[in-house]
């Protein structure tokens, strides 16, 4: 009898100890769950080559690495702003049976969403996901798409422009007529600017081929040029700066890398940080989280950035109230 009781006691202790070891693994955060990343694939589709989107892609890689997916296979394709290529490349990434797809910029995310309704898609650098018809509700994605939105703080940008140029009366907004994101940003900027007593003149271009002639017209009619988060304009931004500088007209972009390229100033989102957030969201899905359980993240970490060389070339003095809190590019 004593031996039987001893055996029961030993068995009970074994069960308790085993439970203590297994329970934390069952109840722990999915982040701690080991995943064999060597057997996983991430398909990335970038809209076009330019510094801002390139930085986002680097950030996606770093975000995945930070979350323990250093060895995940990344299948990267770049559509170079060609819609037919985006469609073909989207189908290619779907056929590769990637575990998650990442669309860098709105046209890429839209193309991926049109190519599959089953493979999870993480969008990066999409300013208006609802307007782009990628999701119907930011808080509750209802399909296979979620991601990181970089909705631009128009009010802060407009305030920065007015601080630097107190006499600002007219602003030319340069954007692509083919990008849904740009149209919504322009409408929002125009509404805010006109409420502040600033006239807005829209300059829409169908392609990069018309940028030079359009900017040449604009600089003769406005005090400054504003460019929203627009991939077509970003891909030809040095041309914009070259023409505007000749006319001594400042350009206020919406991206930090475009200030580095010669834009005067912006209240900008760090594109690499945006990419990191996108990569980390992709990592959640690789661990098994469902898209419908991952709300769209509205990336709102912004900081003023000014280009001191551009200011000097344009003969513009940056107020101390702006300079003291801003990052500087020389």
TrEMBL record:
Superkingdom in the source lineage: Bacteria
InterPro entries listed in its UniProt record: ABC_SBP_TrpX-like (IPR047776), ABC_transpt-TYRBP-like (IPR007487), Peripla_BP_I (IPR028082)
PANTHER family documented for this protein: ABC TRANSPORTER, SUBSTRATE-BINDING LIPOPROTEIN, ABC TRANSPORTER, SUBSTRATE-BINDING LIPOPROTEIN-RELATED
Stated name of the protein: Peptide ABC transporter substrate-binding protein
């Amino acid at each position: 009898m004593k031996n039987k009781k001893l055996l029961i006691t030993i068995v009970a202790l074994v069960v308790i100890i085993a439970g203590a070891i297994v329970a934390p693994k069952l109840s722990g955060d999915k982040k701690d769950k080991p995943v064999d990343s060597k057997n996983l694939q991430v398909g990335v589709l970038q809209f076009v080559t330019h510094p801002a989107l390139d930085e986002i892609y680097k950030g996606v890689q770093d975000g995945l690495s930070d979350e323990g997916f250093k060895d995940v296979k990344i299948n990267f394709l770049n559509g170079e702003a060609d819609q037919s290529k985006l469609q073909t490349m989207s189908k290619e990434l779907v056929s590769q049976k990637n575990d998650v797809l990442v669309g860098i910029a709105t046209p890429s995310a839209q193309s991926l969403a049109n190519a599959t309704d089953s493979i999870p898609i993480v969008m990066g650098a999409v300013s208006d996901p609802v307007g782009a018809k990628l999701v119907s509700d930011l808080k509750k994605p209802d399909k296979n798409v979620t991601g990181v939105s970089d909705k631009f703080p128009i009010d802060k940008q407009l305030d920065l422009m007015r601080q630097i140029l107190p006499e600002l009366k007219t602003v030319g907004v340069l954007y692509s007529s083919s990008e849904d994101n740009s149209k919504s940003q322009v409408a929002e900027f125009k509404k805010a600017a006109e409420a502040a007593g600033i006239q807005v003149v829209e300059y829409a271009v169908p392609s990069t081929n018309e940028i030079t002639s359009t900017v040449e017209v604009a600089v003769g009619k406005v005090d400054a040029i504003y460019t929203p988060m627009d991939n077509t304009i970003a891909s030809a931004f040095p041309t914009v700066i070259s023409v505007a500088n000749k006319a001594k007209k400042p350009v206020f972009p919406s991206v930090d890398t475009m200030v580095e390229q010669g834009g005067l100033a912006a209240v900008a989102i760090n594109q690499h940080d945006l990419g990191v957030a996108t990569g980390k969201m992709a990592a959640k899905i690789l661990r098994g989280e469902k898209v419908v359980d991952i709300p769209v993240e509205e990336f709102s970490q912004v900081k003023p950035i000014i280009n001191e060389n551009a200011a000097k070339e344009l003969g513009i003095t940056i107020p101390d109230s702006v300079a003291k809190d801003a990052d500087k590019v020389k």
